[in-house]
Amino acid sequence: LYLTATASKMSILGLKKKQPKTFKVKVITMDAEMEFSCEVKWKGKDLFDLVCRTVGLRETWFFGLRYTVKDTYAWLKPEKRVLDQEVPKDSPITFHFLAKFFPEKVEEELVQEITQHLFFLQVKKQILDEEIFCSPEASVLLASYAVQAKYGDYDPNFHKPGFLAQDELLPKRVLMQYQMTADMWEEKITAWYAEHRGIARDEAEMEYLKIAQDLEMYGVSYFAITQNKRDTDLLLGVDAQGLHIYSPNSKLNPNKSFPWSDIRNISYSEKEFTIKPLDKKKDVFKFYSSQLRVNKLILQLCIGNHDLFMRRRKVDSIEVQQMKAQAKEEKARKKMERQILAREKQMREEAERAKEEMERRLFQLQDEARLANEALLRSEETADLLAEKAQIAEEEAKLLAHKAAEAEQERQRLEVTAMKTKEEKRLMEQKMREAEQLAVKLVEQSERRLKEADHLKQDLTEAKDAERRAKQKLLEITKTTYPVRDYESASTRLDFKDSDMKRLSMEIERERLEYMEKSKHLQDQLKELKSEIESLKLEEQQQQAGLYGLHSEARGYVQEPRNSAYMSQMAFFEEV
User: Fold this and answer.
1) Which of 48-57, 373-382, 431-440 has the lowest mean pLDDT?
2) Of 54-63, 269-278, 466-475, which one has max mean pLDDT?
3) Is 79 labeled as ligand-binding?
4) Is 188 annotated as a binding residue?
5) Which of 219, 273, 338, 416 could bond 102 through an S-S bridge, CB–CB 3.0 to 4.6 Å?
């Protein structure tokens, strides 16, 4: 931020005067840079007041304009002209607008919000630059308040991991002390940061300062000194409480302290500095500094801190009372505004949550409606399909009923046919038994005839043998005794034997012919019976196949009856 202010004064009567010579000044605050054109006759107070008006600061007694002189620093004196002091000869001349004196209790003494903010920025920088020692635990807590002051309330949806990567929040000494990554430090800071929800920026900065004011090095200005007698190197600390003497290696715990209430007088002569206690019985403390300029700076800080120390213990001036009253009203107004804003924010969040819930519910209802429509369509399709299936089932039922009726008729017909078949079977069985008996008789008769034929053949053979022997004897007798007569009688007997043999042969031939005719007739009957049996079997198989098909369509299956005796008889006749 670069601001330009022209401090030239114009004539009241409008008369033009010659413009005075000016010089440029650059003032650097903790959060801005400003440039001014100053008149050469301006005193330090003129420039300081201009800066305070520009930033809107009324608690001016804590601040000053600091500049660098060689190897040290100095504060711009308000009663002397700017150019008459040992300021740098650069153009523009650079000054730092900083807190010169620190309050004892920040919550009670810092009235304006701008004052709190400037103190917060300066103390934060001193902690990060390790000008103020801070433990790791306190550093993390202070960092969480700094984040709250910068980013507001923690929102996990907005403050994603890594959002603190560009912020300098912890001293380098703390970062080097532990083997932790940046993400781990950020996680620790965020854990504290999340607990500060609802704290405004100025409240977070005040909490930061309240913690920082308890640190040992808070608000202390250190100077290197030597003691008179021993010529020992020491450190002098000046703060709002008083003067403190430290060892060179320890800035935390003072070896000796001189509260402002116990100091009667402070003076210096060139490099010698004298502290006179209020109690005259106590020894005067003397020390030496390296430069006269440092003694002047020490005396300046002592006077300013002592004045503030005494001022705090008096009744506030009218101006301070007005400032505090205005600040109190302003804080009350801001608190009210924050409460209203918090309520509005809460109501808005609730409304947004309700809206999101309604939208979610709407989407859910839309999904449910869509699913219901899809289910309705599927149910309608299913209903149509079921209606179609029901129609098909009804038609199939009708068809099956028709087929069942046909099957029932066929069953009745088959029962009638079966009854007829049973009667025919019975008659056939009777015929079979008769044929079997006839066959048995024929077989017995044939065997008997064969035996008789064998006996007859045997008798014939014996007769022929006897005839041959008789003929031979007859011939023998005829030749010897009665040749002619006996021959005639023998011829007569032979003729008788030949007629008997012929008759017997004819009877045998007739018997054989009759047997052959009966056998042929029996074979013809057997063939007819076999053909009838085959036709009956074929007809029965066709009937059974038709009955099985009808019953399988109507009922699923039909059990075929089996007659083992009948089948065995069929096999027997086939063999016959």
Assistant:
1) 431-440
2) 54-63
3) yes
4) no
5) 219
